[in-house]
Design a protein that fits this description.
- There is one protein chain.
- The chain has about 375 residues and is of the alpha+beta class.
- The protein has 3 domains: about 10-170 and about 325-385, FAD/NAD(P)-binding domain; about 170-240 and about 315-320, Elongation Factor Tu (Ef-tu), domain 3 (Beta Barrel), CATH 2.40.30; about 250-310, HI0933 insert domain-like (Helicase, Ruva Protein, domain 3, Orthogonal Bundle), CATH 1.10.8.260.
- Helix content is about 30%, strand content about 25%.
- It has 12 helices and 19 strands.
- The chain has helices spanning about 20-30, 40-45, 50-60, 65-70, 90-105, 155-160, 215-225, 225-230, 250-260, 275-285, 300-310, 365-385, and strands at about 10-15, 35, 75-80, 85, 110, 115-120, 125-130, 135, 140, 165-170, 170-175, 185-195, 200-210, 210-215, 235-240, 315-320, 320, 330-335, 350-355.
- The protein has a 7-stranded antiparallel beta sheet with strand order 16-15-12-13-14-11-17.
- The N and C termini lie close together (about 10 Å).
- The model has no long low-confidence stretch (mean pLDDT about 95).
Length: about 375
């Protein structure tokens, strides 16, 4: 907007002493800028909430547009094997510095440590009371990010904006006291998660932590089932398939082959399917196979039990741990009352929204940032047309 209309007086109000804090900490300090998913229908499948609302904005400002925007400003992005896109510097400071540099170049005013105490509307003018005085504007963009509690949106509700109660969307599963936590630090490149009473199945890398299970497979499930988990007070049963590329018959056939070819080998000492040694030993124990048991001493019943453990290892989660660097909420400004083409509020004309303050959220992998870039672009276009 500043580039197209340099005559506009554009100000960014930042409550803290530093801008773009979430950009700086995202992706472990690397900043997962977007995802290399350039097919719109496929891209939309990565948004548990708000996919229909995002159709127009993601079409007008896609991951390809994001890549081109940064490249034009001297920032090259790279695509990793899983499709995530990062700056080639592997530093989020590269992205933050680019955005700040662009704002400075275009004459955008950035007011730090500016706390907005209240917002009122008088006719077609918004009156903002801040700790540094009063500001007035006819168009106002809210890009404050999400808030974990409904009270955090009270100031918007006071203006007449409808808000959906927020719940956490990206978090890891707590397994207090479960022996699997003794394997903390181990990971598998692909596993799938199934939750009791919930249809969606998610897959991807899985990480064992000192409090339970994490990694993309878990984080994706936490996004899709965010409201379901909230209703269950984060106490639910789920199953991990450690071998999503296999079925029971294939596994049993592999065990039988091992028993015939290597009858004297210890079962637990010779991991199959490239599973980490400690994880294989643990899963064998879960299936009732002793540490000193040889393949010759196993049979079809134990093979079946081991296959079932590999394909559907049961757990009961009790609580959650927020994945702080990628904290996202399901909830916020109800998109039913926002124009998807311009991001303008249907309830409060002249008020616009962008990013996570809206009730839209994506799974982990750069999709939430892409939604922020796309809705921000749509809002800028809408505000330009308004003026």
């Amino acid at each position: 907007m500043a580039e197209l209309r340099p005559d506009f007086n554009i100000a960014i109000l930042e409550k803290t002493s530093k801008t773009l804090q979430k950009v700086r900490i995202s992706g472990g300090g690397r900043c997962n800028v977007t995802h290399a998913c350039f097919d719109l229908p496929t891209l939309l499948t990565h948004y548990p909430r708000g996919a229909d609302f995002l159709v127009t904005s993601l079409k007008n400002f896609s991951p390809q547009h994001t890549n081109e925007w940064f490249l034009k400003r001297g920032v090259k992005l790279k695509t990793e094997a899983d499709g995530r896109m990062f700056p080639i510097t592997d530093s989020s400071e590269t992205i933050a510095a680019c955005l700040e540099r662009e704002a400075l170049r275009l004459g955008v005013s950035i007011s730090l440590q500016t706390d907005v105490k209240s917002i009122e509307k008088n006719g077609d003018t918004f009156i903002l009371e801040t700790n540094k005085g009063t500001l007035e504007t006819k168009t106002l963009l809210v890009a404050t990010g999400g808030h974990p509690k409904l009270e955090g949106y009270a100031w918007l509700a006071k203006l007449g904006v409808s808000v959906v109660k927020p719940v956490p969307s990206l978090f890891t599963f707590n397994l207090p006291g479960h022996p699997v936590t003794q394997l903390q630090g181990l990971s598998v490149s692909k596993a799938s998660i199934r939750v009791a009473g919930f249809e969606q199945i998610t897959s991807g890398p899985l990480l064992i932590t000192h409090w339970g299970l994490s990694g993309p497979a878990v984080l994706k499930m936490s996004a899709w089932a965010a409201r379901y988990f909230s209703e269950k007070d984060y106490h639910f049963e789920f199953w991990v398939n450690w071998m999503p590329g296999y079925n029971e018959n294939q596994l049993i056939a592999a065990f039988k082959s091992m028993a015939e070819a290597n009858p004297k080998q210890w079962v637990t000492a010779n991991p199959l399917f490239e599973l980490p040694a400690r994880l294989w030993k643990f899963l064998c124990s879960e299936a009732g196979i002793g540490e000193q048991q040889r393949w010759a001493e196993t049979g079809k019943k134990q093979w079946q039990h081991l296959a079932n453990t590999l394909l559907g290892h049961p757990f009961i989660a009790k609580g959650k741990t927020t994945f702080k660097e990628e904290f996202v909420t399901a909830g916020g400004v109800a998109v039913d009352f926002v124009l998807p083409q311009t991001m303008e509020s249907l309830q409060v004309p002249g008020l616009y929204f962008a990013g996570e303050v809206l009730d839209i959220d994506g799974v982990t992998g750069g999709f939430n940032f892409q939604a922020a870039w796309a809705t921000g672009y749509a809002a800028a276009e809408g505000m330009l047309s308004k003026r």
